[in-house]
Amino acid sequence: MSNNYFWQGGRRISIEQTESNITLHAPNVETARSVADAAGVSLEGLEKVGPDLIRATVAGHRDHSMTQLRQLDNVVHHVYRTPGQPDSQYLITDSFFIKFKPETSGETINEFLQCEKLEVLQDLGQNTLQVRVTTATNRNAIKTANLAASREDVEYAEPNLVHQLQRFCFIPADELFSEQWHLHSPEDDEPDLVTGAGIFAPEAWEITIGSRDIVICVVDDGFDLTHPDFQGEDKIVGQLNAFESNGNVFYTDDVLPKGGDYHGTPCAGVALAEINGQGTVGVAPGCAFMAVRFPLTFDDAAMIQLFQRISREADVVSCSWGYGPGYQPLSRAFSDTLSTLARTGGRRGKGLVICVAAGNNNCPVKDINNTRTYEYINGFGSRGRYSGPIDRWIAAHPDVITVSGSTSLKTRSAYSSWGREICVCAPTNNFHDLQEFQPRGRGVVTTDNEDMGEGFTRRSRYTDRFGGTSSATPTVAGVCGLILSRNPNLTALQVKQLLQQTADKDLKIESETPVNEPGNFVDGFSLWFGHGKVNAARAVKAAVPETEIKIDRDIQAGLEIAEADSPIFSKVEISQDGVISDIRIGLDLTHTYIGDLRIDITAPDGTAVTLHDRKGFSTNDIRTVYAASELPALRAFIGKHIQGTWILSLVDTWRMDVGRLNSWRLIVKVTTTSS
């Protein structure tokens, strides 16, 4: 068995060794340099690309240098690439995944492991193992996996690769904006902004602003949890700083940005920024936040462990990173894990909702038969070219929600990746992925790092310069959080289907960069926009729980308002029972000086909320409906039982002016209790 191919995602991928690049197992660059000096080897361009893995360029004869390093018991590998694609690369580890056929006995499996001198790192169930080659194996992981794949009792054997992921974002040189147009654009067109370009979030908030019972996890490079927009009772429910060592993933709670970290804080703000009277608002401000920081160099085995951990604690996960153009099919083990989590994972056991950025490289998410050449800016800021088969890892998985981008003009974001795998698009900024010109379109206003890590807008906790599919993805994750807040009984796959069914298709089939496939909708689907632009209001309205009912009581009070501290009371008895999911109070009264009035509503359990407290000065009359979106204090009733006596109390705190309480309404949505 040779090293000129390996298997990944059930496909045979041809590879060749690069001319001078190698990987060396060492904890850091300094140690790798010392090892090279001891071996008499000259290495250049050393860079940490994974846990205990350093990539370097050999200055002298590559094979001779590798022999010298190995003579000192150093683990050294070639860096591989796709033939004819000099910018592609595959970084191998010492482990691979192997799945034996169901009828294979445990005795046969153990015999194979002993014969090949393999160490078991993980038992993934269903005869699937992650194993590591040892010195006694006398073969690298690719050659050993290829040999194992030829056995009749093996279903697949695929190497565990290290993946260097890109953040999908960009910093355009736009003016500062004070409006979050992506949440709700105006009724009339403005410069670079047209009606309906947003997701209609305020209309969705009329139903729910999100529930703390629903946890949205943002996985990224660091989060400023001191930011005012992440404060609030029970807002942050988890913080994991993930790192890999010896094939296992470990965690601390330090998720604060470090060094070049700039991406996680704005992503989290788009999805979850709290309603607090200042700064920005996220799509799902009422949902709970789980912050997970991880390096962009995890191998598939580490990704499996990370997603399994997230699945135990979150309902939705937002992933604003991935691959540029390249042939990077998912390993079968990781692919199977995602499929399982999407069906049976998540805190509710109904599936983890996985939102993934499509990418910013104006190329397909997946095209196995691709022969076109795509230029792109790689993670190091230089231009690359790729013309081989395309399969962009996690974004191509059929069970995730892959998100592309639309602009404030309701056109295609010029950089946005496209293809059959797109589920929906979401509003974001616009830029040219090769930085050749600046297309029209507004940036997204969100949270930013100020004093830690790096940021988009210097010396500010906020930025209007965020975008890319990095911003579109947490937008969709926030909508998923609102959907589950409305109906937590939905499965993850039902959430995906609901997003598709309620998306807007009134987009302009226009793009400021050439696209190799048409974007018009055919049978309700566009290769540019998927099933359309996510519509938070329509999605949340469609997520009606089967057990939810609406109780609407109109109480004709007809009570004169007494002067000077003599309260009046109006009561209503509710015989039906259920847990309150939303509440509104309508009020109709006449009075010649409402600045004298205090009005309270009291629930059967004694919980009281003030609706009006001596505001409005000499204004006449009150005819309004109080909702939790405008009066957050009403959220105190959420989760309470409705059954019993509700009391509206009103007191005039001053003499002279008079009035009358004509009527009031109790409008409540409840989830009936199961029998």
What labels describe this entry?
11 helices; about 35% strand; Jelly Rolls; alpha+beta; Rossmann fold; 4-stranded antiparallel sheet; about 675 residues; 3 domains; elongated; 8-stranded mixed sheet
Characterization of the model:
- With 675 residues, this protein is α+β, with helices and mostly antiparallel strands.
- It has 3 domains: 5-162, no CATH class; 166-542, Peptidase S8/S53 domain (Rossmann fold); 548-671, Galactose-binding domain-like (Jelly Rolls), CATH 2.60.120.
- The chain is 18% helix and 33% strand.
- The strands form 10 sheets. An 8-stranded mixed beta sheet has the order 14-13-15-12-16-19-24-25.
- Helix 6 runs parallel beside helix 9 and helix 9 (468-486) runs parallel beside helix 11 (536-542).
- The longest helix is centred in the last third of the chain and has 19 residues, at 468-486.
- Mean pLDDT is 90; it is low at 170-177.
The overall pLDDT, averaged over residues, is 90
What class, by secondary structure content? Answer: alpha+beta
CATH topology heading of the largest domain: Rossmann fold
CATH class of the largest domain: Alpha Beta
Domains counted in the coordinates: how many?
A: 3
Which strand-content bin applies to the residues? 25-35%
Distance between the termini: 63 Å
Q: What's the structural blueprint in terms of helices and strands?
A:
Elements: E1 5-8, E2 11-14, E3 16-24, H1 29-39, E4 43-50, E5 53-58, H2 62-71, E6 76-81, E7 91-100, H3 106-116, E8 118-125, E9 128-133, H4 141-149, E10 154-162, E11 166-167, H5 201-205, E12 215-220, E13 236-245, E14 248-252, H6 264-272, E15 288-293, H7 300-313, E16 316-319, E17 321-322, E18 327-328, H8 332-344, E19 353-357, E20 366-367, E21 374-377, E22 383-386, E23 390-392, E24 401-406, E25 422-427, E26 444-447, E27 462-466, H9 468-486, H10 492-502, H11 536-542, E28 548-561, E29 568-574, E30 579-591, E31 597-602, E32 608-613, E33 622-627, E34 644-652, E35 659-671
Parallel strand pairs: 12-15, 12-16, 13-15, 16-19, 18-23, 19-24, 24-25
Antiparallel strand pairs: 1-2, 3-5, 3-6, 4-5, 7-9, 7-10, 8-9, 11-17, 13-14, 20-23, 21-22, 26-27, 28-35, 29-34, 30-33, 30-35, 31-32, 31-34
Helix pairs in contact: 6-9, 7-8, 9-11
